[in-house]
Amino acid sequence: MPLRWAMERPPGSGDGALGGGQPENGSGGGNTPAFTPETPRRALADLIVPDVVRERVLSVLSLIENHETLFVTWNLAKIDPYRRGVAINLYGPSGTGKSLCAEAIAHQTGRPFINVNYAQIESRYVGQTPKNIEAAFDAARDARAVVIFDEADALLGSRLSNVTQSADHAVNMSRTTMLRQLDLFDGVVVFTTNYPKNYDAAFVRRILAHVRFELPDLETRLRLWRHMLPDELPCADDVDSEILARESDGLAGGDLVNVVVAAATIAVNRPAQRRVRLADLTAEIAAVRRARAEVGKSPPDARVVSWEPAPAGIAPDEAGTAGGVS
Question: How far apart are CA 304 and CA 117, in angstroms?
Answer without folding.
Answer: 27
